[in-house]
Design brief:
Largest sheet of chain A: 2 strands, antiparallel
Number of helices of chain A: 9
Mean pLDDT of chain B: 95
Radius of gyration of chain A: 16 Å
Largest sheet of chain B: none
Oligomer: heterodimer
Largest interface: A-B, 36 and 40 residues
Order of helices and strands of chain B: HHHHHHHH
Distance between the termini of chain A: 26 Å
Number of helices of chain B: 8
Low-confidence stretches of chain B: none
Distance between the termini of chain B: 28 Å
Shape of chain B: globular
Radius of gyration of chain B: 16 Å
Strand order of the largest sheet of chain A: 1-2
Low-confidence stretches of chain A: none
Strand content of chain B: under 5%
Strand content of chain A: under 5%
């Protein structure tokens, strides 16, 4: 199993839970925070999509879908490629208003499509190519940065699923 | 890097994440539920480890660490290999009171060690073999089963981290 197959496989498996958890969620639920310091579902979905968009664009050396395809405007936000939610203060999270669920999911799917095309075109040489590390400066192999996308996106998707249960109670999920 | 190594890496990162999430928590905090039908940090850490133990032992054709290494006793539970937490009632979730965070982490580390030794012997061809699981048609391959462990475990690890933030507020994690 090559890295591209692994990453695609984990993201796809993760999406089963993510999309189920978001099915029929209202605007109010998307923006609900269990405490002033915690992230709502809408912010989490926006953030994980921004993370995937950011990392894939860096690895490809291409502009993000957020800015190049005008997604920022559909979210009512600035075309700031550096804003993916990392380091957001509680005030910034509280101020974030998710667009409707369809737009939120459409951005994720658009990014995911770019990601899949990127994965499909990866060569062994690409995986060894050095790209900037996410934190702390320096360079890392592209494969390491790609794995970080998986770690971030799957953890946050789990959190979205947890929030659905917290809001609506047990029973929405059938293992 | 090939599939088995990627899986081992991902599951190793979960160990590090669990350590950070559990560090310094009292047994009461580990067992705390935000609502009676929501899972606690302790239940999540226990469940994700049970899933890994169950699935990897099945792939190895060996008894689970839960049973063979006596971990069930340290949790004060019966040596039931089928009890992984799936389909637990709220009463069962509430009744799961791990002795402390260290026991949870140690159980995960023990399971991870077995998982890594199993993965070290997995060839790319092995990943395409089918798993005998009558719940799924068509049956999953070993590769798909391993990817599902990574996805499940990573989602639950993310949930546990979210709960710590819900409990203690922003700032417990250095980034």
């Amino acid at each position: 199993m090559e890295l591209a197959t692994y990453v695609g496989g984990v993201l796809e498996r993760n999406e089963h839970i993510l999309f189920s958890a978001l099915d029929g969620v209202t605007d109010k639920e998307l923006n609900w925070q269990p405490s002033p310091d915690t992230n709502p579902m809408g912010w989490l979905v926006w953030h994980l999509s921004r993370v995937q968009d950011t990392h894939v664009s860096v690895m490809q050396g291409k502009e993000q879908a957020w800015t190049s395809d005008g997604w920022h405007a559909r979210f009512g936000m600035e075309p700031d490629a550096s804003d993916r939610g990392a380091g957001h203060t509680s005030e910034q999270v509280a101020a974030f208003r998710a667009p409707d669920l369809d737009t939120l999911l459409a951005y994720y799917r658009a990014v995911r499509e770019y990601t899949q095309r990127f994965l499909d075109g990866l060569t062994p040489a690409d995986l060894e190519r050095e790209v900037p590390a996410v934190r702390g400066g320096g360079m890392v192999p592209l494969s390491a940065r790609l794995e970080m996308v998986v770690v971030d996106n799957v953890q946050h998707s789990g959190q979205v699923a947890y929030l659905r249960g917290l809001i609506r109670g047990k029973g929405w999920f059938s293992p | 890097m090939e599939g088995p190594e990627l899986i081992a890496d991902a599951l190793g990162r979960i160990r590090d994440g669990l350590q950070r999430t559990l560090e310094g928590l009292t047994p009461e905090e580990v067992a705390q539920q935000p609502r009676p039908d929501c899972n606690s940090i302790g239940w999540l850490a226990w469940h994700l480890t049970r899933v890994q133990d169950h699935h990897i032992s099945e792939l190895m054709g060996q008894e689970q660490a839960w049973v063979s290494q006596g971990w069930h006793q340290r949790f004060g539970m019966a040596p039931d290999p089928e009890n992984t937490g799936s389909r637990h009632t709220p009463e069962q979730v509430a009744a799961l009171k791990p002795p402390d965070g260290q026991t949870l982490l140690s159980y995960y580390e023990a399971v991870l060690e077995r998982t890594k030794s199993y993965l070290a012997g997995v060839s790319p061809q092995d990943l395409d073999k089918t798993v005998d699981d009558p719940r799924f048609q068509p049956p999953p391959t070993v590769g798909v089963r391993l990817v599902s462990i990574v996805s499940d475990n990573t989602q639950h690890a993310g949930q546990a981290a979210y709960l710590r933030g819900l409990m203690q507020g922003k700032g417990w994690l250095p980034y």
